[in-house]
Amino acid sequence: MQTTLAKKVTIMVGTFGFLVSVLLLALQPAWAADGGGFIILQSTTSTDNSGLLKAILPKFRDKSGIEVRVVAVGTGQAIKNSTNGDGDVLLVHAKASEEKFVAEGHGVARTDVMYNDFVIVGPDADPANLKGTADVIAALQKLAAAESLFASRGDNSGTHKAEMRLWKAAGIDVAKSSGAWYRATGSGMGATLNTSVGLGAYALTDRATWLSFKNKAGHKVLVEGNPRLFNQYGIILVNPEKHPGVKAKAGQAFIDWLTGADGQAAIAAFKVDGKQLFFPNAPKNN
Amino acid sequence: MPDLSSIFALAVGLVFSFDAELYAIIGLSLAVSLTAVFLGALFGIPLGAALASLSFPGRGALTAIINAFMGLPPVVVGLVVYLMLSRSGPLGVLGLLYTPTAMIIAQTLLVMPLIAALSRQTLVELNSEYDELFRSLRLTAWQRITALIWDGRYGLLTAALAGFGRAIAEVGAVMIVGGNIEHVTRVMTTTIALETSKGNLALALALGLVLITISILVNAALLSLNKTARRLAYA
Amino acid sequence: MLKRMDDGTSKETTSRSGDSLFPLEVSNIGLETVGQSLLRDVSFTLAAETKTVIIGPNGAGKSLLLRILNGLLQPTSGHFTWAGRTTDAAVRARQAMVFQRPVLLRRSTEANIHFVLNGLSLAERNTRTQALLEQAGLTSRAKTPARLLSGGEQQRLAIARALATDPGVLFLDEPCANLDPSATKEIEDLINATHASGTKIILVTHDLGQARRVGDDVVFLSAGRLVEQATVQDFFAHPKTALGRAFIRGEIVM
After folding, report:
1. Residue A153 falls within a domain, yes or no?
2. Which residues from chain B sit within 8 angstroms of residue C118, using beta carbons?
């Protein structure tokens, strides 16, 4: 039986299209927005990679029926995405940038949620002899004097901003040494830690990411416990007046939960290897 | 550093763990990339056939553009689609950002030029063979294109497979427009990137091994199907 | 676009419709490329009834002239008319071309014919295809991939396909150039049968034997110029020009 060319092409295209549709239908549950709805949380890799969000978000979903979809990027990127309205809630750690975000009208209000701290990690051999240096500023000055390799995020993230504040306080212009002993990776925390391990370089990281990081090789925490290393996380509802697509009600419900008794308790209960990684400190009246 | 045999063991273990989450990630990868290749081929193959067989003003320029776009960095495509789909972008009201649909759009744009350029290369030779006959028969542009596509269909599969290879392996575009959201837009490549950033290098490599295996299986399946069809056509 | 001429079931009943294309009047046709004159000032008139052979040595411009008449090439000077009309869509639809090396689609024998039968119902297409295959002696090869046919079969298929649209004029460009004598004979029989059913034949050949066997009248070209036009009998018996005499004696290298 002869068929026309057009029919043959239709059959060919149709068959392939059918196969694709079957595949898509099989995956339907994976991408259909469920009844309870969802919000997009623009957050940082530290909260996500450490496993914190994975541990606490199901508790919120069970209570509210709202699914929280996490986009985990650097603080700078998360703020930029939220400025474009591509998120309902912002959970990051760069207070000055967060306040600017709210002041410019992109966010409704900023609330403290929790904190942890930054640490300087480096090779066991410790060529700049930082171990035991309590003063982080002195440690950085030693590092610069020794011209030991240092891997920086270099991506405008919260950790990068904290690092730049520390260098400034130490009176060191790292831009001059960029490419020499100072290496700006321009990537996320995990990638930067991989680089520092590969290079035998020092790096500044938040403690949560470090503790859950699996490729430590010989690297160790060398500088910690200084008040300048305090790392505060804040949460902000993206302004629905600026971006009508923002799910303000569900987003606010999440913020209320996370800064309320249940959310704060959930943060405190999250541990990796028996160690608490984040310390809730939302204002009590919230 | 993880050694190769332990990575291989880990990869085998992953596949046979029948872990629902892993299978969902593999399924989403396949669904997104195959759909993108289907759409890319739907537009790319006729475009390639038109570039191969029709003369129209701007054909040379269009061919050059398509060839250049073959090597477009996925991140750039991802960024462009992000700006389109962002809530503050022109298509923001559709609410497609951070969905598999956005990933399909990005990958379609990524593979379409590749499929078009390779289709053009495949069909240019066939067209030079058929050209005088087609002109003598006064075929319309559409008749020409469909005849070339039909007669060159076995060669065109290679173009589609190259598109699939590019789609299934890229991470830059799907990361930006999908957001790597667990259970929603997390695919093989973004999982590998995530595990790498967590320092789980062995797991990342094992996942890479699984990805390559799937890619080989898809290629082998389509090529053998192709071979059978070709044999039947010449039977 | 191809247009069907009739219901296509019976070739004989649709014959002689080709008359309306003739006489073909060719006036001062020239074809030039950069610094080279391929055809110069070619003029002649062809009637509908005959089988015309265009002969001449290599490089005479025979195939170029055929392509111009079929509309595949545009002449750079001169013009030609079909029964007073310039070549329009209706004229084009009445023409068909067979090339020296048959251009066959990568499909079965019958699908090659099917391909050109646009605008017919499926049943009509099938009936017409079977009739053409039978005419070309290819019925038993219907399902064979066209590229697996022998050289002679391939050329017969190309002719059958050209006849599918029931053309008023059939152009053939050295159709037997690569064939052995028995295959050549089959092609010539098919050409004669096509002519008998009413289609004007314009055949380019460098084979003088074929020109004598098939042709009724001769257009003799050399170096892009028309040298002689005569009946086959007159041309071979009493060539009027020195070039013609030399060509017949085989003194001009092909």
Report:
1. yes
2. 143
Structural domains of chain A, count: 2
CA distances in angstroms from B120 to A59, B50, B52, B207, listed in the order given: 54, 8, 5, 34
Q: What is the pLDDT of chain C when averaged over all its residues?
A: 89
Query: How many whole angstroms separate alpha carbon C39 and alpha carbon B140?
Result: 30
Q: Find residue A271's DSSP bridge partners.
A: A276
Residues A80, A81, A87, A90, CA torsion sign: negative
Is the predicted pLDDT of residue C195 greater than 60, yes or no?
Answer: yes
Contact at CB, C129 and A4, closer than 8 angstroms: no
* Residue B206 CB contacts under 8 Å (≥ 6 apart), including other chains: B7, B8, B10, B11, B13, B14
- Contact B92/A85, CB-based, under 8 Å? yes
Q: What is the pLDDT of residue A168?
A: 96
Helices (H) and strands (E) in chain C, counts: 9, 9
Distance from CA of C249 to the nearest CA of B (A): 34
pLDDT (tens digit per residue) in A220-268:
999 999 999 999 999 999 999 999 889 999 999 999 999 999 999 999 9
Tell me which of A221 and A20 has the higher pLDDT.
Answer: A221
The domain containing residue A246 runs over which residues?
36-116+232-280
Q: CA-nearest residue of chain A to C110?
A: A2
Please tell me the distance from the alpha carbon of residue B113 to that of residue B117, in angstroms, as a whole number. Answer: 6
Which residues of chain B have a CB within 8 Å of the CB of A69?
Answer: 98, 179, 181-182, 184
Give a yes or no: residue C70 inside a domain: yes
Q: Which residues of A touch B200 (CB under 8 A)?
A: 214-215
Confidence bin at B78 (pLDDT 50/70/90): very high
Inside any domain, residue A121: yes
Q: Residue B198 and residue A9: Cβ atoms within 8 Å? A: no
Q: Is the peptide bond before A127 cis (omega within 30 degrees of 0)?
A: no
Same domain for A157 and A89: no
CATH number of the domain that residue B223 is part of: 1.10.3720.10
Range of the domain at C175: 12-248
* Residue A195, in any domain of the structure: yes
Let me know if residue C1 belongs to a domain. no
Using beta carbons and an 8 Å cutoff, which residues of C are at the interface with B?
A: 1-2, 70, 72, 89, 92-93, 95-97, 99, 103, 105-107, 115-116, 118, 145, 148
CA distance C190 to C137: 9
Q: Chain A 220-249, CB below 8 Å of chain B: which residues? A: 243, 245-246
Chain C environment of B140 (Cβ under 8 Å): 1
Give domain status of residue A154, yes or no: yes
Mind listing the pLDDT tens digit for each residue in C100-144? 999 999 999 999 999 999 888 999 999 999 999 999 999 999 999
pLDDT digits (tens, 9 = 90+) for B100-150: 999 999 999 999 999 999 999 999 999 999 999 999 999 999 999 999 999
> Residue C125 and residue A2: Cβ atoms within 8 Å?
yes
- A contacts of B92 (beta carbons < 8 Å): 85, 245
CA distance C110 to C138: 9
Phi, psi for residue A36 in degrees, rounded to 5:
-70, -10
pLDDT in tens, A158-183: 999 999 999 999 999 999 999 999 99
Instruction: Name the minimum distance, in Å, from the CA of B145 to any CA of chain A.
Output: 11
Residue ranges making up the domain that contains B139? 4-233
Reported as a pLDDT band with limits 50, 70 and 90, residue B234 is low
Contacts of A5 in chain C (CB under 8 A): 115
pLDDT of residue B231: 79
